[in-house]
Amino acid sequence: MRVVIGEDDPLLREGLALLLRAEGIQVLATAADAAGLLAAVDEQRPDVAIIDVRMPPTHTDEGIQAAVEARRRHPDLAVLVLSAYVEQAFATDLLVGGAKRLGYLLKERVGRVAEFLDALHRVADGGTAVDPEVVAQLLTRTRPDAGLDRLSTREREVLGLMAEGLGNTAIAGRLVVTDGAVHKHIRSIFAKLDLLPTDEVDRRVAAVLRYLRAADTP
Where do the HTH luxR-type domain residues begin and end (predicted)? Predict the structure, then answer.
């Protein structure tokens, strides 16, 4: 795996690089700001870009904007975004462009090395990895939604795990049920949220976005 890191904190930036190299992952370049990150991605063409949400000069959303731009320039690029806090609007900005090859983790997850590496490999392999704490806070802060209100407790659990990026088999393992039961719950979720099968809409992503958009509504 070939990686570029965008992180303005020098200790975290170098710590990430050391961790990844120790795991046999090739760190092609590191950058302290969004411009440097984009230049490194353009030049090195990595498999994955690890990007801090808040970067110089304003430390607001430069990292998110760089992530969106990097994915626009290089559609096959996997992106793993790191954030100190749960920021729904930023997660929404990323997911609107599609959830494949995308991760959104809290920085504290980096200290849990196995979980961090699992998320990194998941996005590199074309999957999604959303921090469980992000999902939990979004679910508890979600405003009423007629479709969401129709979901059973188990269906909400399944949707929460979908939002973390887990596939059907992983969800079945987490809930200790069969793959068939998970498939049945997901079909019911799609029906209750009025998500019809089309070529244009990824229904799993659309279901997660219902939570994100509701949470962002004032």
Answer: 144-215
